[in-house]
Design a protein that fits this description.
The structure holds two protein chains of two kinds.
Chain A lengths: L1 H17 L7 E3 L2 E15 H9 L3 E11 L4 E15 L3 E17 L10 E20 L13 E26 L2 E15 L9 E2 L3 E2 L6 E23 L5
Antiparallel strand pairs in A: 1-2, 2-3, 2-11, 3-4, 4-5, 5-6, 6-7, 7-8, 8-11, 9-10
Chain B lengths: L2 H18 L16 E6 L10 E8 L6 E6 L1 E4 L7 E8 L8 E17 L3 E13 L12 E4 L12 E4 L1
Parallel strand pairs in B: 1-9
Antiparallel strand pairs in B: 1-4, 2-3, 2-5, 5-6, 6-7, 8-9
Classes of the chains: A mainly beta, B mainly beta.
Amino acid sequence: MLKMNKIHTFLFCINLFLFLGIDNAHAQNDSLVYNERFGLYLGADLFKLARTSYDDNYSGFEINGDYRLNDNIHIAAEIGNDNYTFEESNLLVESSGSYIKLGANKNFYTNWIGMQNMIYGGFRVGLSSYSQTLKQFNFYTIDNTFEPEIQVVDREFNNLSAIWTELQFGFRVELLKNVFAGAHVQLKVLVNETDLQNFDNIYIPGFNITNDFNALGAGWGYSIRYLIPLRTKRKTQAINPGK
Amino acid sequence: MNKNFVKHSALLFLLCLFFSCERDDICPPTTPTTPFLIIEFFDVAQSDENKAVQGLSYIAEGTTDTIPLGNTDSIAIPLNTNLNTTRYQLIRNTNNPDFINADEVEFIYQISEVYINRACGFKAEFRDLSAIRQAENPLTNNWIRSVITEQINVENEQNTHVSILH
């Protein structure tokens, strides 16, 4: 599974580089003129869809959108649903629920005229509403005189919620007109979660897996987006032969 | 193609790879998990004096292995988390065929589940502990004179849970 992730990542990044050369600016007299498109980007996360098909312990999706406010700032949101089964030798836990993330991205990349690619950083606040079921466990013991039997409990923890903050770093490339592919990583800090009686939040939809040591989490995504242009802004750039 | 874009993308690509590697959690050996039962042996004539058992060994119920412990006045043995009772044969003078003597002790308890963390999962703690020596006929055949439950709950291995007088 890990290997497949890496191969997918690799192929995806290779594809992106192949398409980087697209340039649809055109020359007019002695300067370049281009109508830069502003509007709503709508898309879906490809990683979650892919994982749904190859990982028996996961199903889910994410729809994302962002609106370009000005040259560099996009307000952004994601909504999604995650169902994940945590399966380790001592624990079998099912988590499922929905989440929403709200925030903004800032583009740090200066495009050549005619291109609307992005390298961006972003900030989100995430909210998740979910439930968790402890299906079964084994008592942990360092002695094997009495091999612990599997305890099947089917214990439900409902109406759980969590809030976290998230930093995103990613890039986005226009593959075809108005069609953008992107990849990003997520670094998160859990701010609040429902405390459980004699148990823990193992997986929080949207936040991803938690850990025993701190409130940090991580994730990543590959997205495909369609730009619905709502307005354009005329950009010109002088042709400078000396450059 | 813009060099800067390639450089940044490559960096991000490396980050993607980094996050692909999920570490499996491993329960550290220093984490207290399901506790052992701590038994201390005392002199029946002077019950505040520890008294070592010569050639002590045990056989756990349902197993055939004799586990040798040597000459000792304190042992730690596991309790069965699948049942509410565990029986042990405690054997004195294991290596001396003339004086070998096996007594059976039964431990009865309730099990409670205590969550530790993701890596270790749950541990068992034992409540309402009682310990019974199986009486033999005649009673003088028992090398164990008396069994005393010192701690009714077995939650850790810091204290002696059961005292045995012999």
